[in-house]
Amino acid sequence: MGDAAADGQPVVRLECHTAALTGQAPGPSGVVWKLTEPGRQLDANLVRLAPGEKIGTHMEPDLDVLVHVVSGEGVMGTSDGPQQLSEGAVLWLPHGSSRDIAAGHQGLAYLTVHRRRPGMQIRRRTDAPPAGG
């Protein structure tokens, strides 16, 4: 589970610098960084949207999500109405809330953080009926 110091303690490390990844000029849309540390308890993604790019209405039914705008501007549509997004804005999206996102003329880059979903696990079926039965 991740890097450990000689004494077995987890090692703190710099993961990325958002300004270096998002830069001053808008780039192509997509995930430009994500947390990949094995054994982590969180998921995090740095997403960039090109000017005018949109993400349609969607919802996270199980997890709260924290969004931090790191550059650019845009609008997040919510059930409570549009939320203006600009650098430094932090939004809490409670599980079950719906939203859409539209980047403004400067583009938009934002960091999302939420509890990590457990991976798919292969389990032994203990409730399976006996063979031939």
TrEMBL record:
It comes from the Bacteria. CDD domains: cupin_RmlC-like. The lineage of its organism: Bacteria, Bacillati, Actinomycetota, Actinomycetes, Kitasatosporales. Gene3D superfamilies: Jelly Rolls. It comes from Streptomyces orinoci (Streptoverticillium orinoci). This is Cupin 2 conserved barrel domain-containing protein.
